[in-house]
Every structure is written in C-alpha cells, then in structure tokens.
Design brief:
This protein is of the alpha+beta class. It contains twelve helices and four strands. The chain has two domains: 79 residues; 151 residues, 3-Layer(aba) Sandwich (NADH Oxidase). The chain has a four-stranded antiparallel sheet, with helices on both faces. It is globular, with a radius of gyration of 22 Å. The chain binds flavin mononucleotide. The site of flavin mononucleotide has 10 residues, from strand 3.
C-alpha cells in the first residue's frame, strides 16, 4: 500500500482542518517550488521532469476544492494554471505557454523608471489635501506586487486616514495631513510553513519590499511619502484597535500626502565606492 501523501508533514485531515489562509500559503508555496521553479528548465530541456511532477500542488487543489474554497481569486487561478500545465506534461502532451504578458521596456520607459527610482525622496510634511482613494488603491497594488519570499503571500495592509487612528502608531516625526499605510503580515502563514525557523529574515524582507514599492508608486503619482518603522507597542495597539488576530503583526508604516516641503534629495556614496570587487 502506498504511503498517504503528506505536504510539509501535514496529512490530508490536517490540511482539511487548517485555517484557509494557512492552506493558501502552502498551496502558493508548493506550486511555486514544485512546479513554477522547475517547469521552464524542463521545457527547455535542461532538467528532467521529476516523477509526479505537479502532483503535490494538484493534491492541494483537490483539498482546496473539497473545502469549497473559492477558485476565482487571481492567486488561485495562477496555481491552477501551473497545475494544468504540469498535468499535461506528465501525460506526455505538448504544452504551449501562450504569449508572454511580459514585454521589455523601451529605452524611454527605462529612463522614466530610472527617474522614478533616483528622484524618489522621503517627504515628511504634507499639504492639507486628501489623497484620492483611487491613488491609495494603486499604491496598495504596487505594494502587493512586490517580490516576496517563496510566494507565500502573507502581506496585509491597513489604511489609516483618521488622525486619531494614526496616533495609534508611534512615529519619530509629527504626522499630519497624510494617509498612513501600515504593512502587516499574517505570521501564522509563515509558521505553518516553518519559515519563521528556516528563513526568518524573509519576514522583514517581504514587508520592506512592499513598503518600497508603495513609496515608488506614491512618487510616480506625484505624492510624497516616507517609510517609518515602529515597534511592539504599536503592533499591540493596532492589534487591539482593529481586533486583529494574535498572529497578525505590523512591520512598518508609510505616510503619504501631497508634498508640503521642497527637499534636497539625499545623495548616496559613489557607485564605485560600494562595489566591492
Ligand atoms: C528601514 C527604514 C526605516 C526608516 N525609518 C524612518 C523613521 O523612523 N523616521 C524617518 O523620518 N524616516 C525613516 N526612514 C526614511 C529614511 O530616513 C530615508 O529613506 C533616508 O534618509 C534616505 O533618504 P531618501 O528616502 O530621501 O532617499 C526609514 C527608511 C527605511 C528604509
């Protein structure tokens, strides 16, 4: 009799009982590591297809479906797409990836991106003018699309517009006339995968990448922003005020508004000084 399939040591029964977010993290991570990372090498002939290619991700999809969890969110559709490709490859069918949605930038576009990156600066005073909701959503989307370790997907946001709520967050500078985005993480997703033991640094990197993307998008929209950090006291207050789970942990916050100061862009060391070889 073949051994029942376990995923990261979890049996099917355990996966059936697990919090949906935690199962989703495993589903993302297994699709990423057991299909996405391998498939392109297999397709270009530099790697042999492993036995049972895609089976673990497909098993997780089966559990996801059995639990009646939604199949239409974009991250789940992404998993399903890879699972379908892996199944066809297992069956010896030819697979067509279709047109890639990725196109190189023109030189002009690349210069614009460079202008964005080199021109962004921290802005700490803002005009008393509201930031439209549509812009906030664009910044949040930029944050969500930041790279994140092992495709776990545990980044969450709070948008604080009310100055009283903003006082929950301890900052080292006065906070006025801005919207505040708090970057949080659902730690239970990391813990389920034991990433808090294996790659604890990723927790901080994930939040940092999201914050940086938000600051860049803010600059692209003509807004000013500043990334700020906070500690355990703020984490506790946000958890209590918003009734968040004990495992939902804030990492940093970004203040955003219409620039109310003309700042001299800070400079860095010369590139040659920081390249070590
Ligand atoms: C991890 C991190 C923590 C930061 N914390 C603060 C902070 O607590 N207060 C603050 O005014 N600025 C903070 N900043 C903004 C930095 O001071 C700023 O990015 C740096 O001085 C470079 O200036 P620039 O952003 O204008 O290029 C932080 C930035 C990062 C990346």
């Amino acid at each position: 009799m073949s051994k029942p399939l376990t995923v990261h040591g979890y049996t099917e029964e355990q996966l059936m009982e697990m919090k949906p977010d935690d199962l989703r993290a495993i589903f993302h991570e297994r699709t990423h590591h057991t299909v996405e990372v391998l498939i392109y090498r297999i397709l270009n002939g530099t790697r042999k297809m492993p036995e049972g290619f895609g089976v673990v991700a497909e098993h997780l999809l089966g559990i996801w479906k059995k639990r009646g969890l939604p199949l239409d969110p974009p991250d789940i559709r992404w998993c399903i797409r890879y699972i379908g490709l892996a199944r066809r490859m297992r069956n010896g069918e030819e697979v067509e990836l279709g047109p890639t949605p990725w196109e190189s930038f023109t030189e002009n576009e690349a210069e614009t991106v460079e202008r964005l990156i080199l021109g962004r600066r921290s802005i700490r005073q803002f005009k008393p003018e509201p930031v439209p909701d549509e812009m906030i959503r664009r910044m949040l989307k930029a944050g969500l699309y930041a790279p994140h370790g092992c495709n776990v997907g545990c980044t969450r946001f709070l948008v604080l517009r009310d100055p009283e709520e903003q006082k929950l967050v301890r900052s080292d500078i006065p906070i006025e006339n801005c919207v505040m985005i708090v970057v949080l993480q659902e730690l239970s997703m990391y813990k389920t995968l034991r990433f808090d033991e294996y790659v604890p640094q990723n927790l901080y990197f994930d939040a940092a990448a999201a914050a940086d993307h938000i600051c860049l998008m803010a600059h692209a929209l003509g807004l000013g922003s500043c990334w700020l950090t906070h500690g355990e006291e703020t984490q506790r207050r946000l958890r209590e005020h918003f009734n968040l789970s004990q495992t939902m942990t804030s990492r940093n916050h970004i203040i955003i508004g219409w620039p109310g100061e003309e700042t001299i862009k800070s400079e860095r060391m010369s590139l040659d000084e920081v390249i070590l070889n």
